Amino acid sequence: MSNGKINSPHQPVEYGDEAFRSGAIPKQKPLEDPGRFSKALEGGDFIERLPWGHYAGLDLHLKPGSVRIYQKRSKGNGAKHVAGPKWTHRVMPSDFIKTRWQLLLMFAGAFADYYMFGFWMFCAIVTFFAAAIQAGIVAALTHATFPIIAIMCLHLFFRYPFTWFLERHPDFIVKDLGCGFFRPTGMVKFRTWREETFEAPFIEFDPYISFHVNPKGPTSCKLQLRHRYSGWQTAVASVHSTLKHELYAHWDELQRYMDVSQPLPDIPALEPYRHLDPTTAEFDAAGKRGRRADYWATLDLEWWENEGYPAQLEAIREFPWHQLRDRMQDSVPNLNAGAMV
């Protein structure tokens, strides 16, 4: 069990018997077929189920901004206040934003964003002119200027003082319930409702991509993990619908992080912990990484931004993801028949 403990990030770990090993997924009980109606009701947004246990080895958490932040922190110049627990060789934390703050942050983002601010201002100005034409300029000034002033005030508030406060006091919106993906134990823990949590083995989750139409307009795709025996699910990542291939890489990277038969993903966030993870330490000692121990800390950032990272994205985009075989089919007898899609 994870026990919600993510302490001692700089200590080596030992893998538990229940840790995920892609080459030794145990047999699991069959799925109960929920029926067509339940599938349509609960899984109506799901468009595909992703395979388990075979990897492309393509990492996603490699944005130039992330590399830049990591290099600053490795030199002692990074931010002193970091919201939430760190991603380490023990756990990839999740769900540490307080539940009541999540909606507020979505609301704040809608007004702090320049594009959305322009949209709301356009609507308010159109409303003002429509009121001026129908009721006269005096009535428009009296009743239709409030939305314009309100939108401007909300934009300025969320863009500057609100952002300034959160950057300096990130723990104000954080409550760590010990949620995350625990590599040594193979467990997953996430928020369900309010301050309650759900915990189960990683191998009991089915990965799906779902399609959504957002209130702001653009469509998006989400990587969601659904517990096949209880129905509880959690969203892992979300991207614009045109970037759906990035969710394949996200799932690939998450599996390799949890798979103790594989080295840790070679990304900046995990570089300081590679020597503390047994499989990764053995992999690096054998020279299989093919990189210096401080590769990301000393990488030429300009080259990575202009050449390395675009090439990585191209490799993710062009990889034949649908050719990866699903090892979970060998573990769950009726997975194809009982899955949501």
Strand order of the largest sheet: 1-6-7-8
Order of helices and strands: HEHEHHHHHEEEEEEHHHHH
The tally of domains stands at: 2
Please describe the biggest sheet, giving its number of strands, its sense, and whether it closes into a barrel: 4 strands, antiparallel
pLDDT average, as an integer? 86
Q: Report the portion of residues in β strands.
A: 5-15%
- Class per helix and strand makeup: alpha+beta
C-alpha termini separation? 30 Å
Ranges where pLDDT stays below 50 over 5 or more residues in a row are: none
Strand runs, count? 8
Shape: globular
Helix share of residues?
25-40%
Number of DSSP helical runs? 12
Gyration radius (Cα, Å) is 23 Å
Describe the structure.
The mean pLDDT is 86. Helix 3 packs across helix 6. A four-stranded antiparallel sheet has the order 1-6-7-8, with helices on one face. It has a four-stranded antiparallel sheet with strand order 2-3-4-5, with no helix packed on it. It is globular, with a radius of gyration of 23 Å. It folds into two domains: 46-95 and 176-338, no CATH class; 103-168, no CATH class. It has helices spanning 35-42, 64-74, 99-112, 114-135, 137-143, 146-159, 161-168, 245-258, 278-285, 295-298, 301-318, 335-338; strands at 46-49, 91-93, 180-182, 187-191, 197-201, 205-213, 219-227, 233-240. With 341 residues, the protein is of the alpha+beta class.
